[in-house]
Each structure stands twice: as structure tokens, then as C-alpha cells.
Design goal:
The protein has 453 residues and is of the alpha/beta class. The chain has 14 helices and 16 strands. The protein has two domains: 2-58 and 337-452, Aspartate Aminotransferase, domain 1 (Alpha-Beta Complex); 64-334, Aspartate Aminotransferase, domain 2.
């Protein structure tokens, strides 16, 4: 395996990892929640590849569906032709949504970045069709990530933004609903929901006639260790958006399709977005695919005015990818994985919270379903953050990997917004026994890292 890892270091350009730190595991095979390296060492994958293999590695039902499709049609360009598999997937996706969204349309693409990019373009086109041509900007939130395309302009992740700042669009940002480190130094629920009020203030300051949409991950993603806003937050923000003719774009690239214990993360709150995007787990880790779902409210002005949307991608709606997505959704529904994600997530959160009194660097544990974050702090009483040169998250990750559990441990998004954190988002088929081992290994890794601090 050593020679293969050397080849990886020689030829792979992994932009976010310094070359001298790139030392990947070379996977020989995978199955369910586990994979094995070239030396035969077994790992529990507590991050689903990277929030992708939600139904487990090498899910046979998905693979068999793809095999069948490979013998039928492997490519069609949707403006010229489509396939029965593609149409079945579109119908199935719409059936999973509330009626107010279910009367809209779906655009199938290849990645989360593309889905979010086209969501912004659809929102812009909606306003152009209505005659509001000045609406072109989007409000994003700090501590967020929406992809590597033009949606980087509304991504609130300073470490990912700063090299490209001269190329980014002038989009305003608001503080996130982050109760553990409230930007207004208040305590919930006596906080007047300043985080929600901030969205209206931002729209007013930025000129409402220029604001086309507000984009967020309803339950925070990996960029911020899965922040969970108060229940009042989204109904308040949606009301503000409607008041100022601003579309609400919900990025469910990571948290859609059952991961949070609901089919969609927005279903934890009393509101419905105007546009929903999903990706990652949609293809089950077998074939890349994403979807942008726009409500009839968004679509109708575009069709009524015949406003042209002359953009698409070559492999969008690929029938092989559609077969993987359709089979994955059937697995999700037939095996009751949404409900299992809810109960297993509660179990995992309880087990992790039981560790908190024994570890001086655990600051906050949060999440919904099987999207869970553990924020690490230098001082519990002050919630002090670790310095740039201190890397406890990465060190806990490394020690966990050595013990056969793959987790994500990293620094916060930069800019003094958040401390180091651990992120856990295992496949929805994870077992109680595997959760027990994951938590035990994290406990051991935290203890070892604390001794070095």
C-alpha cells in the first residue's frame, strides 16, 4: 500500500490539503458502513464517504439498478430525448415534497455546486420574468458552504473565500443562528430572535430592489458542525422574504433525503422554501447526481413570459445516474431509513452528550438525526477558541482513524467564527453497536489529545 500512497501524493492535486500532509487511505473494498484498506485493516465510515453513501457502501439494490440501466440507455440529452427511468425519478422526487413545492419542476444536474448555482440562476430569472431586473444579489450566512461555483459568493466560509475575493460577486452576508456563540451575546429564548431580525435589516441596508434571494442550509452543514436554529427562526425569515419579494433557497445538498430524521430538513420547521436543492446522497455514492426543485411560484412567471433559460450541463439527467437515484430512494422508503435516522440520531446524541462531563475540550454537541457536530473549545467557561496553529480537531480525527473509525475533525471556517469541531454523519443504515464503537473511539481519542494540550 505504501507505493500506492506515494503515487497518490505524486499525482493527486487535492486543493484543500497541503501536499506534505496528503497521506490517504487506499481503499481495497467497502460494504455497508465499513471499508478495508489494502492491508486489510477495517474502518467504520462515520462520515458516509463524505455525506454521500447514505444507504451504505456498495448497496446491491442500487448497483443492480445501474447494471440494468447500462444495458438499456447510458446517455440522453433531455432537450432532445429522455428515458422512462428519468421520468420515474422526477415523479418520485416531486412526490416527496409538500404540495406547494410539488407543483413545480425539477432540474437534474451532477453536483451540489451545480444545483445551488442553478438555483440562484432560476431565482434571478424569476425576477427578470416579473420585470424586477434590478434583483440580482443573494443574501448568504456566515458559517456556510454552498459550493465551488458562483455560489461561493454567498458562502460564509472565510478560509475558502479569501483567495478568490476579487472574483466574487458583491453579495451581503448575515450572522447565523448560532445559539452557543450568539453574535449578540444573548441567551435563547430571551434573545428577541436577533438572528432572524438581522435578515430584514440586511435586506433594508442592501436595498430590497436588488435582493433576489436568501440561501441557507436549514440545518447547518459540515462547514459549521451542524448548527440547529431555534424553531421560530425560519418562519420569521420566510415571512421577511415574502414581504420584500425575496425567494428562499434551501440548500439540502447534505441534509436532504432523510439524514436529519425528516425527509427534508425544512420539515423540522413550520415553513416551506421556494427552491430546494439536493445532491450528495441522492446517487447513493454510486453515480454523481443532483437536483434543483423550483416551486410553481418560481416557475410560472418564467413560462408565462417565455423568458429564456439557455443554460444547462451535458450530463444533467443522465439515465444511469437517475437509475441510481431512483433505486436509492426506494431503499430509503422501503427500509424506513428516515425514521431510523431520527431514532439512531437521538441515540448517538445521548451517547456523545454522556461524554461531555469527562472532557474539558467539549464545548457544544448539536445536531438533528444523523447530522451531528461536536465543537471543541480551549476553555469551557469562556468558550475560548483554539489558535490557528492548534489543531485538536485534526488530531482527534487522526487518532480515531488509527483506531479504525473514520470521522471528520477540522478547524472552524476561519475569521474567528467558530472553534475546531468534529462532524459525524454516518450512513443511515448504521447499527447501535457501530454507534457504540464510534463513540468509544471518540472518547479515547479525546482523552489522548487532551493529554497533549
Amino acid at each position: 500500500m505504501k507505493s500506492l500512497r506515494e503515487k497518490a501524493r505524486r499525482y493527486c492535486w487535492i486543493p484543500h490539503i497541503p501536499p506534505d500532509e496528503y497521506d490517504p487511505i487506499v481503499i481495497a473494498r467497502a460494504d455497508g458502513c465499513n471499508y478495508w484498506d489494502m492491508d486489510g485493516k477495517e474502518y467504520i465510515d462515520a462520515v458516509s464517504g463524505i455525506a454521500v453513501v447514505n444507504y451504505g457502501h456498495n448497496n446491491r439494490r442500487i448497483i443492480e439498478a445501474v447494471k440494468e440501466q447500462l444495458d438499456q440507455v447510458t446517455f440522453s440529452y433531455p432537450s432532445q430525448a429522455t428515458t422512462e427511468t428519468t421520468l420515474k425519478l422526477l415523479e418520485k422526487l416531486m412526490s416527496l415534497l409538500p404540495d406547494s413545492l410539488g407543483e413545480g419542476k425539477v432540474m437534474l444536474l451532477n453536483s451540489g455546486s451545480e444545483a445551488n448555482d442553478f438555483a440562484l440562476r432560476a431565482a434571478r430569472l424569476h425576477h427578470v420574468a416579473k420585470g424586477d431586473k434590478g434583483k440580482y444579489r443573494f443574501i448568504g450566512r456566515w458559517i456556510s458552504y454552498h459550493g465551488a461555483t458562483s455560489c461561493l459568493s454567498c458562502t460564509g466560509h472565510p478560509l475558502r473565500r479569501w483567495p478568490f475575493e476579487p472574483q466574487l460577486l458583491n453579495f451581503p452576508m448575515v450572522e447565523p443562528p448560532y445559539c452557543y456563540r450568539c453574535p449578540w451575546k444573548k441567551e435563547y429564548p430571551e434573545c428577541d430572535m436577533e438572528c432572524a431580525l438581522a435578515v430584514e435589516k440586511c435586506i433594508k441596508r442592501s436595498d430590497p430592489d436588488t435582493i433576489a434571494g436568501f440561501i441557507c442550509e436549514v440545518i447547518g452543514g459540515m462547514s459549521g458542525g451542524f448548527l440547529v436554529p431555534p424553531r421560530e427562526y425560519y418562519p420569521m425569515v420566510k415571512e421577511v422574504c415574502e414581504k420584500y419579494n425575496v425567494l428562499f433557497v434551501d440548500d439540502e445538498v447534505i441534509n436532504g433525503l432523510g439524514r436529519t430524521g425528516k425527509m427534508w430538513a425544512f420539515q423540522h420547521y413550520d415553513f416551506v422554501p421556494d427552491i430546494v436543492t439536493t445532491a450528495k446522497g441522492l446517487g447513493g455514492g454510486v453515480v454523481p447526481i443532483s437536483a434543483m426543485i423550483a416551486s410553481s411560484k418560481v416557475i410560472e412567471p418564467i413560462y408565462e413570459t417565455n423568458t429564456r433559460f439557455d443554460l444547462y450541463v451535458t450530463y444533467g439527467s443522465n439515465p444511469v445516474a437517475c437509475s441510481a437515484a431512483l433505486a436509492g430512494i426506494e431503499v430509503l422508503l422501503q427500509d424506513n431509513l428516515v425514521e431510523k435516522a431520527a431514532s439512531l440520531g437521538e441515540y448517538m446524541l445521548r451517547k456523545l452528550k454522556a461524554l461531555e462531563p469527562d472532557h474539558k475540550i467539549i464545548g457544544d454537541i448539536r445536531g438533528k438525526g444523523l447530522s451531528i457536530g461536536v465543537e471543541l473549545v480551549k476553555d469551557k467557561s469562556t468558550k475560548g477558541m483554539f489558535k490557528d496553529q492548534e489543531t485538536p480537531g485534526k488530531e482527534v480525527q487522526q487518532r480515531a482513524w488509527e483506531k479504525g473509525v473514520r470521522i471528520l475533525g477540522t478547524k472552524g471556517p476561519g475569521g474567528g467564527l467558530m472553534s475546531d469541531f468534529l462532524a459525524l454523519f454516518p450512513p443511515l443504515i448504521i447499527s447501535h453497536r457501530q454507534i457504540d464503537k464510534i463513540v468509544m473511539v471518540i472518547d479515547e481519542a479525546l482523552t489522548e489529545v487532551e493529554r497533549t494540550l
